[in-house]
Design goal:
This protein is mostly helical. Helices cover about 70% and strands about 0% of the residues. The longest helix is centred in the first third of the chain and has 30 residues. The chain starts with a helix and ends with a helix. The protein is globular. It contains eleven helices and no strands. It has two domains: about 160 residues, no CATH class; about 170 residues, no CATH class.
Length: about 325
């Protein structure tokens, strides 16, 4: 039951990340401008009147019935995930002797999911402030990563590998995990600042390899959405800087993981996982390019977020296997 709960929570965490991307990319993040309910109600159906009034007052604005439902469905899924994680934490404590594992990681997950709830609230109450939205995304992928690690602890069919191979690959695998996490952070910053189409051509950006950019305001983390720290409108050059840095990060990520995959393919016990990482990497790069060439189709943009999470998951699994192999030494 413990293992099944972890698997269910892991799949739900991935679903919440994808749903969060869908809400953000369909401009429904303020579909219900309060928290945790919708205009103080349990669902948009119960808040139909204030939603209709808000939509009448501002047609095409952030509030509408369909946007409210998108936002609330995401909250329902996130709340269910939080409940599952609490159940996992309680079970890990009550059955700690039977499960024969520490309770530290389940407790960290409970703290993290509480923090995620707060970030979800601040996302709404602080009107989609980019740093909060990005941290909320990173909290989501961190929750997924820890659930995957916890699930791997319960697995009994992890391939054996030589200690020499594990020792040789450990630093590469850890560095790959860090690189992917940082690239997800850059992607979150692009999305939360609505900078995905700041460069509409590829591989150049505005017809240049290094276009005009403003880094001073692009990466100021305390500013409001669409504004500089001084309250002025954020320039297109700032958005270009955000987008361009994500492209640079994508190139670095691709080159580093390509080397990592090549090394894994030469080790029999890691070859299958290496092939999976390679395929997911190619898919992710293809989705990223497609976002630019086809002007950010919603389905492609959402898939780009989901596949990024899968890439992180695959690297978590790799690091777990290497860590376990080294512990046996």
């Amino acid at each position: 039951m413990f293992k099944k709960l972890i698997i269910a929570a892991t799949l739900l965490a991935l679903g919440v990340i994808v749903l969060g991307a869908y809400v953000r990319l369909s401009d429904a993040g303020l579909g219900c401008p309060d928290w945790p309910g919708c205009y103080g109600k349990l669902s948009p159906a119960h808040a139909a009147e204030p939603i209709a009034q808000a939509e009448t007052a501002q047609p095409g604005g952030p509030v509408s019935a369909h946007k409210a439902w998108k936002e609330m469905v995401h909250r329902y899924f996130a709340s269910t995930l939080g409940l599952l994680i609490v159940v996992i934490g309680v079970m890990a404590w009550v059955k700690r002797e039977q499960l024969m594992q520490g309770i530290g990681l389940p407790l960290v997950l409970i703290v993290l999911v509480i923090l995620q709830g707060l970030l979800g609230m601040w996302t709404v109450t602080l009107l989609l402030k980019p740093v909060i939205v990005t941290l909320h995304l990173l909290g989501g992928v961190s929750t997924l990563a820890l659930l995957v690690w916890l699930g791997q602890r319960q697995s009994r069919d992890i391939p054996e590998m030589r200690i020499q191979d594990a020792a040789r690959m450990k630093s590469w695998a850890l560095a790959g995990l860090v690189v992917v996490f940082l690239q997800i952070a850059l992607g979150g910053w692009v999305s939360s600042n609505y900078a995905a189409l700041a460069c509409a051509d590829f591989p150049t950006c505005k017809g240049a390899w290094v276009p005009a950019m403003d880094f001073n305001h692009a990466f100021h983390f305390t500013r409001e959405l669409g504004k500089t720290a001084q309250g002025e409108l954020l320039s297109l050059d700032s958005l270009t800087a955000i987008h361009w840095m994500h492209r640079v990060g994508a190139l670095i990520t691709f080159l580093f993981l390509a080397v990592l995959v090549f090394k894994m393919l030469r080790i029999p016990s890691l070859a299958k996982l290496g092939a999976v990482i390679g395929l997911v990497l190619l898919l992710q790069i293809g989705l990223g390019i497609s976002n630019v060439l086809f002007s950010l189709p919603l389905s492609v943009a959402v898939a780009h977020n989901g596949v990024a999470a899968l890439l992180l998951v695959s690297l978590i699994i790799l690091n777990f296997r290497l860590t376990k192999a080294l512990k046996r030494s």
